[in-house]
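Subgroup meeting minutes
Present: P.N., E.W., G.H.
Scribe: E.W.

1. P.N. recapped why we're keeping a running log of single-chain structure predictions: easier to compare across weeks, and new members can see raw inputs and outputs side by side.
2. G.H. added today's entry (213 aa).
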Amino acid sequence: MNKKKQALEIIERLKNEYPDAGCTLDYDDAWKLLVSVRLAAQCTDARVNVVVQDLYAKFPTMEALAEAEVSEIEEIVRPCGLGKSKAKDISACMKMLMEDYGGKVPDDFDALLKLPGVGRKSANLIMGDVFGKPAIVTDTHCIRLTNRMGLVDGVKEPKKVEMALWKIIPSEEGSDFCHRLVYHGRDVCTARTKPYCDKCCLADICPRVGVEK
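Output recorded in log:
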């Protein structure tokens, strides 16, 4: 089975296993997803979802967050780790959205990359989840699982993984595929324990079955 056929088979099996998989960060507006994905660096989505409730209680709008003192933002987001740098990026990002984009999150990938604190992973998440455009989010789950599954070969650099996956994943499937990898990576193909290959829906087609990473 070549990589493209294998990818299609994996996509279909994960669809059956996790039919309702979606973004695990809570948000009701595009700018809030930008804030959350920045806070999620080296932090769990569950903790981010709790912390942002306090953040939006004090700064409920993009404008309010843009006008807030960085120190005030830092005080609230500190539980997510790297509070100083995250607060600085969030403040600068909200200011740029207000000043350069009229308070709207741009639906252009390159424009998103110009926003402070936004890298390819974040930009792809916004493109896929907010705007419904083709996206591949190469987070730690995606990188680990696609290597284990043999869809990429020993590639760990996020952009290189993304470029390799674009060649074999249908563009309309990329965003949901990556969300399902998160669910599968947390429940079955885990990082901190030996993968639970005995209960994996991909066991018969995965080259890493029974091999501890």
